[in-house]
Amino acid sequence: MYLLPNITIIKILEYILNDKCCIKDIIYFIRKFTLLSKYTNINIISKLRCDKLVTLPDIYDTNTLKISCKTLYDLTMKYKISYNIHLVVSIHSTMIKENVSAISVSLEKESFDALEYPNVKYICFGEMSGGLGYKIPKELKNVYIALEIPPSPWDKIKLSRVFNENTYNDIFIFENEMEIPKEPQWIQSFKGSNSLTKLSFYEVIIDDWLLLILVEKLEALEHLEMNQISINSDSDIDPMDEVLLKMSAKPLTKLKRFSVSYENSVVLENVLAFIQSTKAKEVNLSFPKMTSNSDSVSINSPVIDNPRITTFNCGVSKLTSISTINYSLLHNFKDMSHMTNVIAIIHCDKSLCHLATSFVNVTKLSITDCTEDYFANSQFISKIIELNPVKLVKLHIINSAVSDRQKPSSYSRISQALKQKNRSLTRLSFSHMIIEDLIDFIQSNHPTILSLKTINLMIFPSSLVMKDVAKALQSNRTLTALQIDAVRDKSPYNLYDCIIDILSVNKNLVKLSLPPGIHSIPKDNHYCDFENVLKTHPNINLIVIPSSLSMKGYKELHPLLEKYFVKSIKPDRYVFPTLNM
What we know:
Blueprint (H helix, E strand, L loop, with lengths): L5 H12 L5 H11 L4 H6 L9 E3 L6 H4 L3 H11 L2 E5 L13 E6 L16 E4 L2 H4 L12 E6 L9 H5 L6 E5 L2 E2 L5 H6 L8 E5 L2 E3 H10 L5 E5 L2 E3 L6 H11 L7 E5 L4 E2 H10 L4 E5 L2 E3 L4 H4 L11 E4 L1 E4 L4 E5 L12 E6 L6 H4 L7 E6 L9 H9 L6 E6 L12 H10 L5 E5 L3 H10 L6 E7 L8 H9 L6 E6 L8 H9 L7 E3 L10 H13 L5 E3 L6 H13 L3 E3 L12
Parallel strand pairs: 1-2, 2-3, 3-4, 4-5, 5-6, 6-8, 7-9, 8-10, 9-11, 10-12, 12-14, 13-15, 14-16, 15-17, 16-19, 19-20, 20-21, 21-22, 22-23, 23-24, 24-25, 25-26, 26-27
Antiparallel strand pairs: 17-18
Helix pairs in contact: 9-10, 10-11, 14-15, 16-17, 17-18, 18-19, 19-20
C-alpha cells in the first residue's frame, strides 16, 4: 500500500482547514482529526496552519464553544489563527486580542481603543455615532478604516466630519436621504480627502451640488459606486448629465472601478464622452433611458476608443429620441481587443457581428439576449464561438424574453458551433435549454467544457425526464461541475435516487446541483447508499440539498456529507444557489 508523504497530507488538511470560516468549524475539525492516532497528532496535526481570517461569534460564550478561555488561547497560538470579530461586547478573554485582524463595531463604544488590538488591519464602524470622526492612534499603521452610514438625520451631521478628516478609506452610504442645506464655509474649505479610496451609494437621494463637489474633489478615489441613486436638482440639465460631463472634463486619475445605475433619462453623447475619457479599468453602466439629438446612423457609429477599459458591463436602453427600445453601448466601440470581461444585455443581431473578431483577449463573456424569438438572431453569439478565441474560457448566455410557458426553438446552431469549432471554453452557462438539448450536450463529452450550468431548464411533455439526464451523466467523462435549475418537471423524480445513480458511476464530478423534484424525500436506504457512494468517490466535494428537506432529514444527511468532507448547501426556498462553477 502506497502512503502519501506527511507534507502532502498536511497540504491537503490545510486546504480543508482553511475552508472553515468560523471558530466552531475549526474546533470540530481539530477534534475529529486528533482522534486518529498519536503519530498523526505529533507529525501532522500540530504542523497545520490556518491562513484564513476566522469569524469569532458576536458574544464569545465558552459554554457554546464548550472550551475554556485557555483552550481557545492555546488553539489560537498553535494554529496561528487570525480573527474577524463583531465588537458588540468585549471579548471575554483578553488573551487572543493580539490575533484580531479585523473588527466590526456596530454600537457606540466610548471605551473602544484600537490599541488593545495591536495587529488589527481593518476596522469597520457600522453606525455614525460610533465611528464618526474616530481618530486612529499613531502607533497603529496601515489600518484600513471603513464607515457604513445607514439612514441618518443628515441635517445634524457635519459634512467635514465625514469627507475631509482624512480618516476613512471606505465610506458606504445606503438608504439615505442626503438632503441638507449648503454649508458655504465647508464648500469653500473642502479640499477632498487623501485617504478615501472607495465611496459607495446605494438607494441614496442626494443633492446635486454635493455630488458634483464630491466627484470633483475626491481625487484619491479608486472605486466609485452609485447604485439606484436619485439626485435632487433645480437645474434644467439632468444632474447625472452634469456629473458625467464633469468627470469627462476632469477624469479621476486614480479611478479603477466605476459603477452607476440611474433611472432617469441621460444624454447618450454625455455617456459616450465619459466612457472615452475615464481612467477606470472596470465600468458598469445601467441607464435604461437615454436620449440623443443624433440620427440613427450616427448613433450606431463606433466612436469609443479607450484601451484602459478591461471590464465593461452595460444594459440595453430605450432611446426616446428615435424610439429604439434595445440600444446597446457595444455599438459604439471601435475595438474591444483590450477587454477581458464583458457583461452585456443586448438585442442580438447582425449589426454586432463586427465586434466578435475583436474579443481576442476576453476571458469571460456574459450575454443576456432580449430577443423574443429565442436566438433567432444568434449570429453574434455563434460567430464568437466559431472564432474560438483562445482566452475565452467562461461564457454565460441568458435569454430574458422567453417565458416558462414558451417552448424555445433548439439552440442547435450554437450547439454545433460549440461541439465542432470551439476548444477553449471551460465553463458554459445557458438559460432556457430544453431537456433534449441538455442531454445531447452531456452525451457529446465536449473535450474542454468542465462546468455546465442551466438556468430555467425547460421540461415539457416529452418522453424524456430527469432520469434520462442522470443516465446521460453516468456516461459523461468530461464535466466536473453541473448545476441544473428545473422549472417544469412533473415526472415522479426523486433527487436522492438520481444523485446516487449518477455518483455511483460518474467519478469525475466535483460539484453537483440538481432540481429538487416533487417526490424528493430521502428514505432510510438513501443514507446507507449515500455513504457507500461517498466512500468510493474520490472527487465530489459539494452537493446542493434542497430547502424542502425536513430538519430531521437534514440532521441525518448533513453529518454524513461532512464525514467525507462534502459541503452541503441548503438554499433559500425561492432562490436557487449560485455555485462558483
